[in-house]
Write a structure and sequence with these properties.
The chain is an alpha+beta fold. It contains five helices and 14 strands. It has two domains: about 170 residues, Deoxyuridine triphosphatase (dUTPase) (Deoxyuridine 5'-Triphosphate Nucleotidohydrolase, Chain A, Distorted Sandwich); about 55 residues, no CATH class.
């Protein structure tokens, strides 16, 4: 049997069902408007937040539109208004109950045993909307999927802009979560970890107290950078596999 190159084993293929859909597919950006607007952009100091922002690929809305739901269960209880042209049948309410559906122009193929988690863009809140997430077995099915958003309250005007992310995808190994045996126990049962936590807690509390007391050095620092640097307080070296940025590859056109 001919061996398959490693890079082929990890191919994520997006087959275009029809060309020039306007639903661009690209790596998820680190930036979020609401994070830009925080004081001194402090939200970007939260490394777990920024890593999650980048963990996947986004698909853009092809049109700008508004929608309003009157609270009913019928399809026509949600009314759309396309602000940049004629209605687009890729954007509709096909399930009723105030659910907006985006029809995807791609049929995805993942390696054997890998699903796609289909979701709203991470840490991208939308007024009056909540993204409905799903996990799809894209290693075998010849069916595509839809991306759906639930309007959260009747008579609330919601909006998408052309080019705004309406969907985010990320691979997930099938069955991986089921391999874990969750265990709950007292922190005191791990003396070494308990001491490390106590040291971290003292350092954090002390820093916050110095800021409150007007310590100029603590204020100048602005925040504790230990986790961002891949260290706990007092560590001399960073964790070897620590990540501060993801290097997710863009889709190549074939």
């Amino acid at each position: 049997m001919t061996s398959v190159p490693a890079e082929e084993n990890y191919s994520l293929i997006a087959y275009e069902i029809y060309p020039n859909s306007g639903m661009h597919l690209q790596t998820a950006p680190i930036a979020r408007e609401w994070m830009d607007a925080t004081q001194k952009r402090f939200a970007y100091r939260c490394l777990p937040l920024t890593i999650a922002n980048q963990a996947g690929w986004i698909i853009a809305s092809p049109r700008s539109f508004t929608a309003m739901w009157n609270g009913g269960e019928r399809l026509n209880d949600t009314v759309f208004s396309f602000t940049d042209g004629a209605p687009d049948d890729r954007i509709s309410c096909i399930f009723g109950h105030g659910v907006i559906t985006f029809n995807m122009p791609y049929l995805f193929r993942t390696p054997h045993g890998v699903n796609l988690w289909v979701k709203g863009p991470t840490n991208w809140p939308k007024h009056g909307l909540h993204a409905l997430e799903g996990i799809v077995e894209t290693d075998w099915t010849a069916a595509t999927f839809t991306m759906n958003w639930k309007i959260t309250a009747p008579n609330t005007l919601v909006r998408f802009e052309r080019g705004e992310p309406c969907c985010m995808i990320l691979p997930q190994q099938r069955g991986f979560i089921e391999t874990f045996q969750p265990i709950k126990c007292s922190l005191a049962s791990n003396a070494e970890l308990a001491e490390e936590f106590a040291h971290w807690s003292r350092e954090r509390t002390g820093y916050q107290e110095r800021v409150v007391q007007g310590d100029q050095e603590a204020i100048r620092r602005g925040w504790q950078k230990d986790y961002f640097q891949g260290k706990d307080p007092g560590d001399s070296e960073s964790f070897a596999e620590h990540q501060t940025k993801l290097r997710v590859r863009e889709f190549e056109q074939k």
